[in-house]
Every structure is written in C-alpha cells, then in structure tokens.
C-alpha cells in the first residue's frame, strides 16, 4: 500500500482539471490553502461569477482523525473509534448557461488504522451529471465515457456502478432523481490496493473528456430569463440532496471538516416554489418526463 502515490496523483488531477477549466472559462481559480486543527489540510480551488462558471470548486483534502465519525462507520460499526485518514479530490461545477449541466466528480481513498492487524482501506468515487435541459447525445456521451473508464477493471463494473449511482443520487423525499446519473462506488476493496488505485485514476482521468465535450456543444446556446428561472428552480433540488442525503457532506461536517470548502458545492442561487410543475409539452417538462426517470442510456 502506497498512500503517498495516491496523494501525488490527486494533487496532479486537481491541477490538470483546474488548468483545463481555466482555459475554457478565461478566468482564474483562486487557491485557498487550509489546515485542519485535528490533522491534515487541503487546497480549495474556487472560481465564482466568471464567464462560464457561476461557481466552481475543485477541492483536494487530506485529513486525519483520532476516531472515525458516525457517517464513516454506518456500514462498518467494528471500525468505530479507530484513527483514520482520508484523501480525495471533489469537484462541483455550476455553469452560468442553463444549457450546460452541473457536474460532480469525486475520487477518494480512506484508511482506518489498526493495532496489531492490517489497516483497513477502501477507495470510492464516481461522477454524475445534472442537466437542466435534456440532450440525448450528451447523456449517451457522458455514460459511454464512464463505461469506457471502468472497462479495464472488468465489464461488470459499469452496470453495477451505474445502478449504484442511480440509487444514491436520488431524492427519496421527492421520489425523483437528481440528474441523469453516471457512476458511483464506495467501500471498494475487492481489487486490492493496486486495482482500486487504478480504478480511481481511470475515473479521474475520464472526467475532462466526459464533460468538456458537452461544454463545447452547449456553451454558445442563447438563454434568457425563462431558462435561468428553471435552472434556479432545479438547483433547489441539488441543495436538498446535498443537505439531506449526501454522505460526503455529512462526513465532512461530522468530522470537523472545513465548512467553507464542504458547502462550496452549493449553487450560488436557487429557488423553491410550492407544488409547482412546468407547462405541459415544454422543454422543462421534458427533462422531468424523458431524462430524470432512470434508464439505460447505452441500450
């Protein structure tokens, strides 16, 4: 096991993604370096109110603790009380143009220390797409890129992790998907350290090809107040998921993480309406009827 190699990769991934996004946007991500009193720290790279991105965060963290928080031991109660370390890159981009989807990426490594026995470790990650207007070719491209990234680890992983993503990024209180999914996995140990590390590298390296193709297709589409209003309304669902259901948000807050970085994933503006539905036959309704219901995009 070589956690240093994981950390080196994650830092290089953050730098590569930021440099590429800056080239697309023309703006600059600030670098906010921070330390955690309980141990560790990170670098938050953030852009706001720029040409392409209303808010974007590409965050690296490497944090340590003396006792694992409840969100990390929910499925492993035997690990409660152990010292631990976690490192990862987490990304959320909220574009200004409503025709460009919001996107999320996370790749991470977790290690629980043991006395007298082998340490317990696992990998996790994935990426998912949250469009405001549906484009079939974008959904197919995103899922095909996810499938191809996982293929070297085994053909069974894409359908397994696609289904996991569909289950995870689901607002149970609304009975509604957050977006069109992608892939999601956690607690990955079956491939060993080398195989798990290879998988998160493949997922991390696939992000830019998966997303920038969609940005290029949609960035010049004109929009007006109607599209922005719908975007703000749908962003409300994003906020609901992050605050109610997201394990990463809960872990960060429960472990004494840096609140500013944890909540940087939130959209800069959002709206809620009481018991409202878009007009019948509209493109807004089509998102709800044709894109949010779980489906096989590669059939």
UniProtKB/TrEMBL annotation:
<dbReference type="InterPro" id="IPR018375">
    <property type="entry name" value="Coprogen_oxidase_CS"/>
</dbReference>
<dbReference type="InterPro" id="IPR001260">
    <property type="entry name" value="Coprogen_oxidase_aer"/>
</dbReference>
<dbReference type="GO" id="GO:0004109">
    <property type="term" value="F:coproporphyrinogen oxidase activity"/>
</dbReference>
<keyword id="KW-0627">Porphyrin biosynthesis</keyword>
<feature type="binding site">
    <location>
        <position position="143"/>
    </location>
    <ligand>
        <name>a divalent metal cation</name>
    </ligand>
</feature>
<feature type="binding site">
    <location>
        <begin position="256"/>
        <end position="258"/>
    </location>
    <ligand>
        <name>substrate</name>
    </ligand>
</feature>
<feature type="active site" description="Proton donor">
    <location>
        <position position="104"/>
    </location>
</feature>
<keyword id="KW-0479">Metal-binding</keyword>
<feature type="binding site">
    <location>
        <position position="94"/>
    </location>
    <ligand>
        <name>a divalent metal cation</name>
    </ligand>
</feature>
<dbReference type="InterPro" id="IPR036406">
    <property type="entry name" value="Coprogen_oxidase_aer_sf"/>
</dbReference>
<feature type="site" description="Important for dimerization">
    <location>
        <position position="173"/>
    </location>
</feature>
<feature type="binding site">
    <location>
        <position position="104"/>
    </location>
    <ligand>
        <name>a divalent metal cation</name>
    </ligand>
</feature>
<comment type="similarity">
    <text>Belongs to the aerobic coproporphyrinogen-III oxidase family.</text>
</comment>
<keyword id="KW-0350">Heme biosynthesis</keyword>
<feature type="region of interest" description="Important for dimerization">
    <location>
        <begin position="238"/>
        <end position="273"/>
    </location>
</feature>
<feature type="binding site">
    <location>
        <position position="173"/>
    </location>
    <ligand>
        <name>a divalent metal cation</name>
    </ligand>
</feature>
<keyword id="KW-0560">Oxidoreductase</keyword>
<keyword id="KW-0963">Cytoplasm</keyword>
<comment type="pathway">
    <text>Porphyrin-containing compound metabolism; protoporphyrin-IX biosynthesis; protoporphyrinogen-IX from coproporphyrinogen-III (O2 route): step 1/1.</text>
</comment>
<feature type="binding site">
    <location>
        <begin position="106"/>
        <end position="108"/>
    </location>
    <ligand>
        <name>substrate</name>
    </ligand>
</feature>
<dbReference type="Pfam" id="PF01218">
    <property type="entry name" value="Coprogen_oxidas"/>
</dbReference>
<protein>
    <recommendedName>
        <fullName>Oxygen-dependent coproporphyrinogen-III oxidase</fullName>
        <ecNumber>1.3.3.3</ecNumber>
    </recommendedName>
</protein>
<feature type="binding site">
    <location>
        <position position="90"/>
    </location>
    <ligand>
        <name>substrate</name>
    </ligand>
</feature>
<comment type="subunit">
    <text>Homodimer.</text>
</comment>
<comment type="function">
    <text>Involved in the heme biosynthesis. Catalyzes the aerobic oxidative decarboxylation of propionate groups of rings A and B of coproporphyrinogen-III to yield the vinyl groups in protoporphyrinogen-IX.</text>
</comment>
